[in-house]
Give the backbone structure.
Amino acid sequence: MSPECVIGVDLGGTKLLAGVVDSDLNVHHRVHRMVRGLGQRELLDMAVEAVEEARASTTSEVAAVGFGIPCLIDQRRGMATMAVNLPLRDVPFRDLMAERLGLPVEVDNDGNVAALAEWRAGAAQGATDVVLLTIGTGIGGGLIVNGAPCRGAIGAGAELGHITIDLDGPPCQGHCPNNGCLETLASGTALAREGRRIAGEQPDSAVGRAFADGREITGALITELAHDGDAAAIEALTLIGTNLGIGIASYLNVFNPDVVVIGGGVIAAGELLLAPARAEAVRRALPTMSAHAQIVPAQFGTEAGLVGAAALALENVANGVR
Amino acid sequence: MSPECVIGVDLGGTKLLAGVVDSDLNVHHRVHRMVRGLGQRELLDMAVEAVEEARASTTSEVAAVGFGIPCLIDQRRGMATMAVNLPLRDVPFRDLMAERLGLPVEVDNDGNVAALAEWRAGAAQGATDVVLLTIGTGIGGGLIVNGAPCRGAIGAGAELGHITIDLDGPPCQGHCPNNGCLETLASGTALAREGRRIAGEQPDSAVGRAFADGREITGALITELAHDGDAAAIEALTLIGTNLGIGIASYLNVFNPDVVVIGGGVIAAGELLLAPARAEAVRRALPTMSAHAQIVPAQFGTEAGLVGAAALALENVANGVR
């Protein structure tokens, strides 16, 4: 390991994953914690403790700490403004952590740090313009524009799941007041909903039998049954992939990106999701845009947040920020 | 006038407007030409001639020429790739003009140059993140991101009229293969279409009587009748403004801009368009985003393209590009 390193922390709604990361973005000394059910104070205490444990595990000097959080961030003050799955609201996260850890701290949205990971060391290396979508319970996003992360005026941007694709569509979730968002029609939650509907319509399919047996119809189960060849499960994934392609087409026309990276849990479906997404994106986007862009799966899986948070910390060490 | 100036050229589908512009973006010595019906060679000859006329009208040294064109641009080679309303297809516009004029030439999409004008000297001065929508026959767009113009990987981006807002909506026009684009539901063309529908439904309204009298129901006529207080004309503008607000909400969530600037011919309707657009944007966008952003009319009217093209030329003089 190089003499100087950083600590990256993926603080998710279910668990925390921290790691000591060198300047080549290799991860050493991982630390795990469970998060669910904690209050705000306990959550912050636990994050400090996890970073201290990671720091104690290395002989290298830790130069900075980066956090990726599924939360709206106000970068002007490093505030964690509003989160759906974490007890964080209007917390001055960056300064609070910097004071408790005695180290420079950076914080960003989980989608933004995942985009940073893919751009620096993953599926979008060498690109100047990148759109990243993470398809999980919801849809998160991250943007690289003109060769730099794009976070908007106060750092709250790139909420790429929250564009309307169906003006009369179903209501969105959490703190989003919209209806017909991409998230409502192409997330893991949408996949499970469509899977249940198709299971009811096709009781003899594998999905239908699982439903009749009382199994919970999740995105993960549908993906598993689709990989096993169940036509009904494939139909559900094709529908979600097609909806995803509608959103991708809009982003191709807006950003003219080199690459669209699809990550998150639902990308476990691989080409069963991506092939219909690509077909729909090409059908809808301006030909100049779709001819230029690649639509590819994320390279980092469960460590995208950790690596991206470390990349964030490394960038700001390099820039001499704070 | 300062000793050094540039020439800005707005090369539209109907007419060309050129002007000598100083470093404070004041316009001197305007030149007009009609464009409609010209072939590609005649169009290029006429553009050269108009620039030469403007150049001859000033004693200042002309440092560069900027063009704004309603066309997909490939900035890697300064190519005019594809236009709906002009006979330009795969023309190496920048280099061809530079050679014929003997001056440095820059070229960009008309939406991008309008955004540059509003950002440098209009409604978006001082902002770092700007979304501009021009509502005319179609919907054009321009973006300032992180304090710089955002054109995408090959310079063809910011096609902000071409995001899907209604996945089953009407087919789009020109070279766009999509259906349910923002452009199909919130442009001047959409306003005229909805005006005709409402005229048929409400024959006693002013719009209905104009329709019965055989007048052509255009966006301009509807705007005029709405300003006179006709409820049916106001209804048509409210519908188009509401649809516009759906698109604005998506752009608030994606870009977290300081300001959304609405220009183009349809903005003659003023608050009759903007008030319903703002209301719908606030109803749909994440509250953090709508709380930060202003939604305002463009400051430049018919000279946005000319001034923006000049700003483009001035930027590249300042940067020492080409």
